[in-house]
Amino acid sequence: MLIVMNRLEGNVALITGGSRGIGAAVALRLAEEGADVVLTYENSAERATEVVEQIKARGRRALAIQADSAIPEALTAAVDEAAAMFGRLDILVNNAGVFLVGPLEDLGPAEIDRTLAVNVRAPFAASQAAVRHMGQGGRIISIGSNVAERAVFPGLALYSMSKTALVGMTKGLARELGPRGVTVNLVHPGPTDTDSNPADGPNAEVIAGFTAVGRYAETAEIAATVAHLASADGSYITGASIHIDGGFTA
Predict the structure, then answer these.
(1) A Pfam family for this UniProt protein (predicted)?
(2) Which of 234, 230, 208 has its CA nearest to residue 26?
(3) First vs last Cα of the chain: how many Å apart?
(4) Looking at 41, 159, 216, 236, which residue is catalytic?
(5) CA angle 134, 117, 168 (to 5 degrees)
(6) How many CB atoms lie within 10 A of CB 158?
(7) On the CB side of 6, how many CA atoms lie within 13 Å of its CA?
(8) Backbone CA torsion sign across 117, 180, 62, 241
(9) How confident is the chain (250 residues) per 10-residue block, as mean pLDDT?
(10) 216 is an active site residue
């Protein structure tokens, strides 16, 4: 894959939930393009450390901060720490999420509260905190889901609702922050090969069959679009919901 080196030279990026999966791939791609990277993690300290070391091996500065995205104060503190440590903050990637599914009748207040806290309130809170440190050219990019638009299996109502909320947030913030030179966009990945949803999992063949191309995405394919939006090449894209889903929603 051709990578345009140094498009993000001098930038500082914060990725929530950046210790694994799509978040880790985004962290590494932004570092390869020249950004210094801060990532948050909830429990995966060892994996977060591995990502940090990989970023440093690419010649960039890196930091991992433990923060539960369900706690707004912890998330705000992480954003402020990142900006203080590296002297600026240019890019926020709202990646952390929870995937709680089940029949409507079985989803209690705890599941509902946790989903909305991490998938909806956290991106809003992180964006609030980040924009205080951003100037002209700032970027806010959230990671949504293909099921925000097409929920093909039962039991996805809560998760789909939480990811659909990001569409409204993205459009509203794009209007509000556009005059300040900050773009806000939403990336909807389709089936992606991660630990939690492996391309060789028990339901993978069925899930891949819903795409037009008949396969799962690699995390690097999602990261490539995030990197484009984060760079100057994406400066005229804002308020957009971009599907990287192999035609899942076609």
Answers:
(1) adh_short_C2
(2) 230
(3) 25
(4) 159
(5) 60
(6) 21
(7) 0
(8) positive
(9) 75 97 98 98 95 97 97 97 97 96 93 97 98 97 96 93 98 98 98 92 92 97 98 97 96
(10) no
Strands 91-94 and 139-143: parallel
Q: How many CB atoms lie within 10 A of CB 88?
A: 15
Enumerate the H helices of the chain as residue ranges. 21-32, 45-57, 72-86, 109-116, 122-131, 157-177, 204-209, 219-230
pTM for the complete prediction? 0.95
Task: Confirm if 55 and 62 have CB atoms less than 8 A apart.
Answer: yes
* Residue range 137-166, pLDDT digits in tens: 999 999 999 999 999 889 999 999 999 999
**pLDDT score recorded for residue 2:** 52
**Would you say 50 and 64 are in contact if contact means Cβ atoms under 8 Å apart?**
no
Quote the tokens at residue 132.
């205080």
Domains, the chain, ordered by start: 12-243 (3.40.50.720)
- DSSP designation for 147: G
Rounded-to-integer distance, Cα 22 and Cα 115, Å: 19
Are the C-beta atoms of residues 185 and 170 closer than 8 Å to each other? yes
